[in-house]
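Long-time lurker. I teach an intro course on protein structure, and each term I like to show students one example going from raw sequence to a predicted 3D structure in token notation. This year I'd like something fresh instead of my usual example. Would anyone be willing to generate the tokens for the chain below so I can use it in lecture? Attribution to the forum is fine with me.
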Amino acid sequence: MKYDAVLFDLDGTVLDTVEDIADSLNRALENHGFARISTAQAESFLGNGTRRLVELALPESCPESVKEDVIEEYRGLYDRFCHEKTRPYRGMVELIKALKAAGVKTAIVSNKPDSMVQTLATVYYPGVPDVVLGEREGLARKPAPDMVQFALKAIGAEAGRSIYVGDTEVDILTARNAGLGCISVPWGFRSREQLEKAGADPIADTVEELARYLGL
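-- Reply from a regular --
Happy to contribute to a lecture. Here you go:
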């Protein structure tokens, strides 16, 4: 095989999560007297973790104490409703299973809180990835290399024989910082044009094309 390990981002790469994220965020915003945001706005805010998502949805003048309350409420709501409308992208479950059958180690590495990542992976990818990792204490979130390095160590893989697959500029930077190549996919939260502007190379427009890049 071309690679010993393939690491995947979660939101916008293996799972279409934006509607559940937007719904939970809007409930939290409304409950604190703030205006709702559109699904497209929520999508554009994703990639840098929960705290940054909520910060971007709130007015800049929002007091820090209120911001913390909204973040906490959003986390609680999303933990309850994170798989109402979420779905795997077509062909991704089969792709990861095919990699596993070929002896390739796989991992999901996400800036979403670890408890939520574990829940979603269990619901939609049960028993498929070798390692599932979300934001947790002691590990700097992407685009720092820490989470990728942790995952590689856990599956016994080297950066030079591994590849990262993601849908945002954060994923491109993460792979670069960790010494991996990156394959970008435009079916998630950034368009092909946005990915090209961020320096994405290569870009896999379909799951079938992604499979070819991975050597399947």
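Some talking points for your students: The CA atoms of residues 32 and 107 lie 37 Å apart. The chain has a mean pLDDT of 95.
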